[in-house]
Amino acid sequence: MDEKSFEIIQINISGEDKVGLTSSLTDILAQYDADILDIGQANIHQTLSMGILFRTSSDVAGDIMKDLLFRAYELGIKIRFTPISDADYEEWVHLQGKNRYILTLLGRTVTARGIAMVTQEIARQGFNIDTIHRLSGRIPLNPNELGAKKACIELSLRGTPQEKDAMQACFMQLSDRYGIDISFQKDDVYRRSRRLICFDMDSTLIQTEIIDELAERAGVGAQVREITERAMRGEMDFQESFKRRIRLLKSLDASVLDDIIARVPITEGLERTMRVLKMVGYKTAILSGGFTFYGQYLKQRFGFDYMYANELEIVDGKLTGNYVGDIVDGRRKAEMLRLLCQFENINIAQAVAVGDGANDLPMLSVAGLGIAFHAKPKVKATASQSLSTIGIDGILYFLGLKDSWME
């Protein structure tokens, strides 16, 4: 008695998307007890592109293809059949052992040129693109409808970079040239189970440095700004710069704190970011070298779970030029991130850190995902990920969240 033989066949379907199309085609495969080995579908502007890889007995393969052709004609779609050899199928199966990465392209717009240049580098590094998804919403033709517009696509890659440092340098150059952010992350279990996000505050959650605002009220704005810039560029130790700036605020009336709270601009996308993060169950923290009076305001307004910052000393309604407790500097931020991970009982690889200055680098480097947000050049060059083209809600795309899930 002859041993039963089997065939592996790939079908590719294209045409107008219709309700029940997938059910109609797979019903035919079910009638012949075919095994579906892989299936995928994409829909662009109501046009369907679908692939099904199935295995069936050689005795009925011809009947299946005949029935599928008739059904495709009835549905008004195109169908193409490709036989797959056992050797080719086994080679394809073994590819799943390769490393997987996620590459995210993000900007106000993502142009064809930008995509072309990035995918050229991907090919040069030896990656295969498994899937491409649009994470941002559909773009209307009238730009006035967009508001703060943004575009994002996500590519799932398989392989191992041949020259990772050179690839990252290339991505940085392309980012500057085409006005896009490029995130490259390993697609592992930790990326899919982030639990905690820690934010810097000044120039990250808000669009200024609070100490500079205080200095303007104290009449020492120029002096403090110079020290601030040197510290943020990494040219001065943060603790020393902090003490110098605080001393310059001596005798400032504490009543100005409430006025500053009312005037400081919030970073684009913060409200949406916090709403979505809470919706999907993230714990959130402010870890700031700024001040508790403003950090507490943000915590209450947006619902942060934790807040750690520096406390100004106030006596008789005036700033003393001193502070209370330990200084929250870069080292302390990284320590607090670790402690929060222990408290929340999570692996630090499940934590995300977001900041813009040199004193954020320690926490950016220890977190599973460190994002330099509209950062100084030194910070952007050092951090593994950077976001510079849109608001802070861009980090939601780095987490793999789609607009359609967030609205």
Keywords for this entry:
407 residues; alpha/beta; Alpha-Beta Plaits; Rossmann fold; 3 domains; seven-stranded mixed sheet; four-stranded antiparallel sheet; 39% helix; elongated
What topology emerges from the helices and strands here?
Blueprint: E1 6-16, H1 21-31, E2 35-44, E3 47-57, H2 58-75, E4 78-84, H3 86-94, E5 100-107, H4 112-124, E6 128-134, E7 151-158, H5 164-178, E8 181-186, E9 196-199, H6 210-218, H7 221-232, H8 238-247, H9 256-263, H10 270-279, E10 283-291, H11 292-302, E11 306-315, E12 318-324, H12 330-343, E13 351-355, H13 361-366, E14 369-373, H14 377-382, E15 385-387, H15 395-398, H16 403-406
Parallel strand pairs: 9-10, 9-13, 10-11, 13-14, 14-15
Antiparallel strand pairs: 1-3, 1-4, 2-3, 5-7, 5-8, 6-7, 11-12
Assign the CATH architecture of the largest domain. 3-Layer(aba) Sandwich
Number of strands: 15
CATH C-level label of the largest domain: Alpha Beta
Q: What oligomeric state is this?
A: single chain
Largest sheet: 7 strands, mixed
CATH-assigned homologous superfamily of the largest domain: HAD superfamily/HAD-like
Strand content: 25-35%
General description of the model:
The structure is a single chain. The chain is of the alpha/beta class and 407 residues long. It folds into three domains: 6-94, 2-Layer Sandwich (Alpha-Beta Plaits); 98-187, Alpha-Beta Plaits (2-Layer Sandwich); 196-406, Rossmann fold (3-Layer(aba) Sandwich). It contains 16 helices and 15 strands. It has a seven-stranded mixed sheet with strand order 12-11-10-9-13-14-15, with helices on both faces. A four-stranded antiparallel sheet has the order 2-3-1-4. It has a four-stranded antiparallel sheet with strand order 6-7-5-8. Helix 14 links the parallel strand 14 (369-373) and strand 15 (385-387). The longest helix has 18 residues, at 58-75. The mean pLDDT is 91.
